[in-house]
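Can you give me the bound-state structure? Components:
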Amino acid sequence: MTPLRATAASHKPDSTLPLINIVLLLVLAFMIAGTVAAPLPEGFDPLQSMRGAPQPRGENRVDFTVTQSGDVQLNGSAASSKDLQAALEALAETGGKLSVKADSRAPASAVMELLADAETANIKEAVVVTIGSKP
Amino acid sequence: MGTPLSTLGTRRSRVQLSLTPLIDVVFILLVFFMLVSQFADWRQIDLRPQAMLGGGAGDTQTLIVGLYPDQTIRIGDRSTQDLAEAAAIVRAKSTSDGAVVIQPRDGVAIQPVIDLVQALDAAEVSNVRVDSQTGEPMP
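Here's the bound-state model for the whole set.
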C-alpha cells in the first residue's frame, strides 16, 4: 500500500534553481566563446587556409560574401552594384576594414574585382577571410 | 467586504515567486545563441590586387605566375601542378625588390589562388599580388 505521506511529498515544489544555473551558464558560454554573425548562404563552402592570421574581434569591418556563382552579398543579403559601391564608400569614410568571405568555388576574378573596387574606393585595409578547419 | 487582515497576512507569507517566465526567457536566449553563434576558426589573408602596385605587370622586376583551371601553374617557360615546386621556382626566379603577380585565368576558382599564395608565403616569397584581370598570362 502507498503510505499517505506520499501525497504530502508530491506537493513539495521541485527546485528549478540548479536548472536555471546550468542554462544561464550555457548562455554565458555561448555569448563569450561564440561569435554572433550573419548566417552564411546555403551550401556555402568557405575558403580554407592554415597560415592566415586569426581574425580579431570587435573591429570596425563590413563583411562581403562572394557566392559560388560570383554574386556579392553584403552582410548576408544580396546587394546591387549600387548598394555595394555605396557601402564601400561609407566604409572608406569610417576607416573600416573590408572583409571578404568567398566560397572556395567562387571565380577568382569576382573576388579580385571586389578587392580592386575597394582599393578604388580608397579602403585602406581589405582581407580575405578563410577558415582554419571545417566547422 | 474586505479581506480580514489576519487572512491577508497568511496569504502573503505563502506567495512564491514563479520561476517559469525566467526559465522561458533563459531558454529562448540559449536557443538564440546556439543558433547564431559560430565557433569556426576564422582567419584572414591579405590578398592584394595588382592594382595596388605602382607599376604594371610588364615591369622587368615583376614575375608573372599563370594559374590555369586544370591547376597548372606556369612560371615563364616552366609549368607544374605541384605547389611546393612552383613556390621553389618562383623563389629562385624572383628578386628581392621585385613583385610576384599571380594571374588566374578565366575559370579558376579562388581556392587554388589562396593555396598558391600560402605556398609562396611558406617559401618566404614576398611582395605577392594577384591580378584582378583574368586572361592569358603574359609570357
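A couple of observations. The mean pLDDT of chain A is 80. The helical segments of chain A are 5-10, 17-33, 81-94, 108-120.
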